[in-house]
Amino acid sequence: MLSQLPLLPVLLPLLGAPACALLRRPLAAWVFSCAVSVLALAAAIALLAATWQQGVLSYALGGWAAPWGIEYRIDLLNALVLLLVSAMGAAVLLGARASVWREIPEHKRTLFFVAYLLCLAGLLGIAATGDAFNLFVFLEISSLATYALVATGRDRRALVAAYNYLVMGTIGATFILIGIGFVYMLTGTLNMADLAQRLPAVGQSRTAFAAYAFIVVGVCLKLALFPLHLWLPGAYTRAPSIVTVFLAATATKVALYVLIRFSFTVFQVEYSILALPLETVFVVLGVVAVFAGSLVAVFEPDLKRGLAYSSVAQVGYMVIGVGLGTVAGLQASLIHLFNHAIMKGTLFMALAAVVLRLGGSTYAQMQGVGRSMPITTACLLLGGLSLIGVPGTAGFISKWYLVTAAADREQWLLVLLILAGSLLTAVYIWRLVETAYLAPRQSPASIAPRALEAPAGLLAVLVVLALANIYFGLDTRLPVQTAGGAANGLLAAVLP
Amino acid sequence: MDVFSYFNYWVVVVLMMLGFFIVIARGNLVKKLIGLNIFQTSVFILYISAGKVMGGAAPILADGVELYSNPLPHVLILTAIVVGIATTSVGLALVVRIHAAYGTVEEADILEQDATC
């Protein structure tokens, strides 16, 4: 059993999806999907524990040895991303019932859960595989499922958002395919560990530069790094609430993992810096993303859309960490990857509850929501504080590590910009506080009559997520040590 | 002479740019998908060309054959073709739904309708 462990988190949802399609009743499909995702989470936890004890786990799929067959290779970084994605996948699904029942028509609910499991399988597959082409296939599995999920939104604009995402996502994925094709032509291998050994020999050729450039642009499209973020706000705003929670907490995180994996393992950092002025490009784009995303978020009348733009900004912070190119920077980036998933999971989950009860998430609709939905609003606020980076929350830890990493490189301007970005976050979170607690409650006619707390299932998950923000703000061992170990592992090959 | 020996790759570049241009420049959602398809197909040709070994036989073991073409890129691209078909069908399904919801498949008209409502 233990020897099959690296495969389980991917295999369970991948086999669970078609099995789920056989279930006619939506409730049965939901219970089944929950069971599958919880089992996948259990496997991911066991995997992280195993990587701490034994180091890198390697699994030859179908018994074909590594450079020829597909290898699943789990080191600390993979295990961290697997844990994060499966945990958020399970948590979102457990709280999803009420919201899905409200937003998805009955005949589509079973298929909704099928698409959800497929998306989960794709994302976990990306995080587990050690084979570059296999990564592309899983990327497309998760993307196609995501397009379908986004299109199930009630608003017809969801269809247009899904279409735009499909076009952009396919261009991104095809760019990655071109890049992988080039490295295959250069080296004759698709295994990432094998590529890492063979690429330095041909590293100076123009083909290798082109390959890296194609892969970076393709991944940045998926990552929604400014200025390639145009699909994200539409998709996040129009998708059903539950899909937004899931995507915000997992999809961009996995894309960041791919960027890190290709930049630091496959193409090795020194060479990456040589190919492109990595540091400058990533740091500058990251800073621009922070400010562009936050500024739009400040003026956005719809909180859900505002938070979608805030995701663009937060991706900026993560990419700044990658751009610093040091162990500390990479560690900060990975910690933020972990913490941001929890923050945005909390925020969008709370918004799912708000949309469920109030029918929308504009500031106008949310006036006085702090009195009609006190627990939901408290969780929303907690997520917001964590997003700003208030001490005692998870967000503070990631900002702290990022600022320290920038200070280590003596980039004082960057430190200043990161802190200024946090201030902008505070502006739109304050706007939320003002609307929720200080604004007069709307007249009874315009507010939905049943503006009560969310149902227990959703609320329980929301409270757990909100408390996780505080827990990981106080007990930082899990993300910090794992991210530290992963960052050391990534840079061990190139740093003395 | 070199120009002609890389004939396949020139085709790839031309098709890729054509497809990419159609995706960006056309406002019709179906035409965009056609462009996307051409763009993807050019990458398929790139892979298939890379697998061909000059003078190599089809990769089936036989007596007296020393040189084989590389079958792996062809197998990879079979997978990518399946992915491409899936993408196209999801895209076309979305276009059908968009047409039902908006009564048009022109991007400009859709934007206009969204702006007015």
Automatic annotation (TrEMBL), chain A:
Its main location: membrane. It comes from the Bacteria. It holds the Pfam family Proton_antipo_M. The keyword Transmembrane applies. It is a multi-pass membrane protein. GO terms for cellular component: plasma membrane. InterPro entries: CPA3_Na-H_Antiporter_D, ND/Mrp_TM. The chain crosses the membrane at residues 29-49, 80-98, 110-129, 135-153, 165-187, 207-232, 239-260, 280-299, 311-335, 341-360, 372-392, 412-433, 454-474. It is found in: Cell membrane; Membrane. Residues 131-425 form the NADH:quinone oxidoreductase/Mrp antiporter transmembrane domain. Keywords: Cell membrane, Membrane, Transmembrane, Transmembrane helix. Belongs to the CPA3 antiporters (TC 2.A.63) subunit D family. This is Monovalent cation/H+ antiporter subunit D family protein. It comes from Parahaliea mediterranea.
UniProtKB/TrEMBL annotation, chain B:
It is found in: Cell membrane. The chain crosses the membrane at residues 6-25, 37-62, 74-96. It is a multi-pass membrane protein. InterPro entries: CPA3_antiporter_subunitC, NUOK/Mnh_C1-like. Keywords: Cell membrane, Membrane, Transmembrane, Transmembrane helix. The keyword ATP-binding does not apply. It comes from the Bacteria. GO terms for cellular component: plasma membrane. Belongs to the CPA3 antiporters (TC 2.A.63) subunit C family. This is Cation:proton antiporter subunit C. It comes from Parahaliea mediterranea.
